[in-house]
């Protein structure tokens, strides 16, 4: 009886936590096309103000120009801390910190996101700062030259001089031949150097317009007062032209492509098997998030336990689902231990994939997988900054803000049979690029 009561209590607690995760929000539009999402949570005196722009690394030079990559990432830096008409160069972070704020920005191939978090009594100040970089940014030659140097240093430290730093670049370049997902998100430094000031200004004027953005405000706010302030600070931003994209489609991969790449910063070789999978709005993309969790989330996962722990063939092994709007990337990778061959490692990984294709995962593993996914969602939605990001992302990229609440139901509805079917459909040797990632020879 005691055990039954304990189990019932646990279920009540879990149910309460999941119910508490339901995120309420309001949406409205300004006359200039800016979509606004408000989430009120008065539990702590903080507020996050952010905006997401429908522009990313795939929008090279504004017109899919392969000689002008990296523009979206460049603007991440310029607008995150650059000068404006009313904020002098080098003062952005100092002014923000003086009000107890913090902030950051990030760019993917699909979108760029900027956010700042302040004590909630500084909401109006946060809105002023945020709108200032959209209304009055200084995009002159000095600003361009300054940010170019910042980007170059980031590229050197994060990619060029870091072991396995070219992993994503090599994968994207070989999986995509015509779609701009083949571009490096950070761009080619020669492209940024060659671009004119007018090209940078045109890029801003094309993409950083209210009808190509979503503004999100989350935290300790008063809804009516916040709406009034949003209108005051953002309504003057002029509406832009509608952006039309006609990116070319990729032909299916029908036979294995083998690639060799070399990296002067590594001593241990690696193997990558990369597949092109559906974009993140498709149900199969959710399934592949589950597949990667099943295969390589933690030391008890299938690949790690088998290849690293039991057989001691690898120092590291994993599966990653890089979800993107038009096409996603599913990549399996491993670093060998000792003299283990890369082909032997790939064969061990394939053994697990074939097993998933031929057998349903066990009920126990399926339930463990569901629990992990639920915990990840609950954990993500426990932070105001994460909630703000999710609200903006689900609106801009998925077209459904309420996915912040519904995604858990999507995962719960995915069956073992669907997992098996997706692995059968997409993870076959003739559908992949095999990349041998080798040390530079002297």
From TrEMBL:
Signal peptide: 1-20
Domain Peptidase M16 C-terminal: 195-372
Entry-linked InterPro entries: Metalloenz_LuxS/M16, MPP/UQCRC_Complex, Pept_M16_N, Peptidase_M16_C
Residue ranges constituting the Peptidase M16 N-terminal domain according to the UniProt record: 36-155
Source species, domain of life: Bacteria
Segments passing through the bilayer: none
Similarity section: Belongs to the peptidase M16 family.
The protein's name in its UniProt record: Pitrilysin family protein
